[in-house]
Amino acid sequence: MGRVMNWYKWNTLEDFNIWHDALCLTLGYPETGSNQLTGLLDESAQKTTAYTVALEVEGKWIAQVENKYSSNLIETNLRLKKPEL
To answer: Residue 1 has what pLDDT?
Structure first.
């Protein structure tokens, strides 16, 4: 089964950063990448430094988060608007 993710919102970027920094610490970020062929850690690969990225929409900050990390977060229907052609 794949990862189940939803969109959640924060009132400020600072609120998001506090939550995100705590989660990254819990998850052990920055995370060393691995060689897909061998499965071995690849110290020369770029490290994963962020779990997710926040986007500003209508004065709120939204980000996709796996449900297993979403305790106490507020789910939202806010989305980035697609540019008009």
So the answer is: 60
